[in-house]
Input
Amino acid sequence: MLALDKLHPSVSCPQYDRSRLRTRIAHIGFGAFHRAHQAVCAHHLAQEHDSDWGYCELSLFSGQQIANIKQQQCLWSVSELEGNRCQSTVIGVATAALSVPDDGLEAVLDALCEPDIAIVSLTVTEKGYCCSSMGELDTDNELIRHDLAYPHAPRSTPGIILEAIRRRRDAGLAPFSVMSCDNMPNNGETTRGVVVQLAAAQEPSLAEWIERTISFPSTMVDRIVPAVTDEALAAIAAQLGVEDPAGVQCEPFFQWVIEDSFVSGRPKWEQAGATLVNDVRPYEEMKLRMLNGSHSFLAYVGCLSGYAVISECMKDPRLVDAISLLMLKEQAPTLSVEDINLEDYAAALKHRFENKALKHRTAQIATDGSLKLPQRMLNSVRWHLEQGRRFDMLAFGIAAWMHYVSGKDPQGNAIDVRDPLADTLARIASESADAAATVKGFVALESIFGRDLPANATFVATLTDAYIAIAEQGVKAALDEWVSGYR
Output
């Protein structure tokens, strides 16, 4: 276990008095990304600017990592990797840690109702919001059905936040802001929507109170943080000199753009490299479409090509050419960001993808594609259809996703598809009579493609052509042809 007195001298440790930290942010979703992103920002503020903003770390569905840091005085390490360079830092801004499985729901709700809590932040992935691709509360979700029946004993993330808001209101406590840090467009508005819609179904007056009182700032977050594997944990232990089961690896790059709308104060994040703005959306769309869209493209095409990690994909010239076209010809034109040179941004992204020290697995990025495709690719497709422009690489990436979620790679080996619609997707692939029917079956999924795209003949035809090309030629030969045909 991690102990400060046993660390290698090269490891940076907290130099601030941790006893001075006040628990002012409760974070739901104690995953690798939060540990390597928002918590690192708070650590730098405490280390360099005497900030007293501390975190209560919360997990709703898994207790393992919370249990790990409890044994380590709420400490964990973050190792930044690039090439042969590794810099490890121990993060000390967590002041408390709780999980529903180990500590119980009431303990988590009590933590959210501590008077000092000014912000509740979230990294719970898209499915944690229990909403449709259009941002509406999914009342068919089993967690939401439970919360509608038992509002004071919630199970969903929106339900738990709502119950904490209710209890704070009833106790006369100051409201907190709710800040999503997940990769979703308009993540603040999405969070507001699901919480307010759930409140309206339970207690309409509470929904009105939330609309008047609570802020839901949107954010854009960016840092590549691979899933933690046994190999990564062994490398972390070698770097630290001790084991750290909560340790994470990441790239040196860090970006955080935050809508400056907080009802009960906030840390001075800008002192640690964050950007505070009035409107996050242009930055959000840039990152979702150029970075995350390219990542998804590499994940599906890469998996079908036999590449296990992103840096391997970047050794394949056809894939490098393809994401260059995707970024600059198909994603960049759809964006409204004004203060960033998108050619430079694309070049920087490719450099980051080439980082061999990060074992960012294509299979990790490929998860939950049914939730990710709308904002990463499909909204851009809609723009191109409106403009009468080509969208070959977007179509190829979506077609590769369709092959991936069929559950078989080109050699016939099983693919471990992790998606909330995995069974439905596999059924469509197995029951369709031919390629055109398969594409039609996938596109008919309104929760992914909406009603407009299935009705658009150009979209369906282009997607079908890409799907058939991959099926008949193999993904590499098909991509060669599609890239060559672009020029």
Q: What stands out?
A: The domain at 4-277 is CATH 3.40.50.720 (Rossmann fold).
